[in-house]
Amino acid sequence: xxxxxxxxxxxxxxxxxxxxxxxxxxxxxxxxxxxxxxxxxxxxxxxxxxxxxxxxxxxxxxxxxxxxxxxxxxxxxxxxxxxxxxxxxxxxxxxxxxxxxxxxxxxxxxxxxxxxxxxxxxxxxxxxxxxxxxxxxxxxxxxxxxxxxxxxxxxxxxxxxxxxxxxxxxxxxxxxxxxxxxxxxxxxxxxxxxxxxxxxxxxxxxxxxxxxxxxxxxxxxxxxxxxxxxxxxxxxxxxxxxxxxxxxxxxxxxxxxxxxxxxxxxxxxxxxxxxxxxxxxxxxxxxxxxxxxxxxxxxxxxxxxxxxxxxxxxxxxxxxxxxxxxxxxxxxxxxx
Length: 336
Ligand code: PMV
Known about the structure:
This protein is an alpha+beta fold. About 40% of the residues lie in helices and about 25% in strands. It has helices at about 75-95, 120-135, 140-155, 160-170, 200-215, 215-240, 250-265, 275-285, 310-315, and strands at about 1-15, 25-40, 45-50, 55-60, 100-110, 170-175, 180-185, 190-195, 290, 300-305, 320-325, 335. The strands form 3 sheets. It has a 6-stranded mixed sheet. It has a 4-stranded antiparallel sheet with strand order 9-10-8-11. The chain has a two-stranded antiparallel sheet with strand order 6-7. A hairpin with a 2-residue loop joins strand 6 and strand 7 (about 180-185). Helix 2 crosses helix 4 (about 160-170), helix 3 runs antiparallel to helix 4 (about 160-170) and helix 8 runs antiparallel to helix 9 (about 310-315). About 50% of the residues are buried. (3R)-3-hydroxy-3-methyl-5-(phosphonooxy)pentanoic acid (PMV) binds near residues 16, 115, 160, 201 and 294.
């Protein structure tokens, strides 16, 4: 039996613009998904999911097309086991063991579908645990690549490499097209607000595409996000060159850029009332900056605040279901 875990992520900068070839900087956060895998002899899969910000469930099925027989909504089962299934397919392929079955338990501290990379973390940890259980040890790069393929398959081609690469490597990452690399970043005081909901990524991405095609100034807004990300990267590089702990000037400047980034995302139509409310609650509480993270429409915001003020303010903000601190996690996928 093997247990592996992998972190979720926030976008420090650059979501949506990354779809059009601009750079983006996702950062892994100290909220992890944990997957335990044990080989079984009958070729069947048994998936037990706990604490996924939804009711836990257990489902047992085989890979011969048989419909799972469980007492929860089919959508819920499909969404949750789709990713586990795709991870198992990748692990079987990597270990050249197409018929092997597993008992799989998933435990996650990352809200589902809220812009924090929950599915990527489950897929990354699942591939690592399942291959190790079969005696195969993949490199972090191969786990990232296989996790990307798994997400690509489940999301029917609508997946970027950002979430899976960031979850596999940990730390801060720079993504531009297919080019993903780790970058140095100081320890950043992230605080997250979650409105309990989720946006529809496909619809939000399509909305930005329409605006960009219709108005040259919307296209300019997307490239301005790219300029902002490049500025943010320079700030990170200068910061880590001198001191591993982000000084007040660095956090201040990154916060200013985050505020700007949120404004541009809002202009592109991907914020929401609850996200804006949490962003303003964070700013009013003294955060250095705050923005939505991920596709938007609902879900999470990320703020920078080394004090407890933002976390406390978020807890009392109407429409905010949870406010929590989640520092940059430099540890990617690992065995527990
Ligand atoms: O909400 P998330 O974490 O899946 O992020 C979506 C990020 C987008 O840039 C909007 C889309 C993408 O695939 O990059």
